[in-house]
Amino acid sequence: MAEINSLEELGAAVKSAGTEAAVAENAAAAETTETTEENAAPLHERKVDDLGRSYATGKRKDAIARVWIKPGTGKIIINKREFESYFARPVLQMVLLQPMVAADRMGQFDVIATVKGGGLSGQAGAVRHGISKALTYFEPELRPTLKKGGFLTRDSRVVERKKYGRAKARRSFQFSKR
Question: Cα 85 to chain center, whole Å?
Answer without folding.
Answer: 28
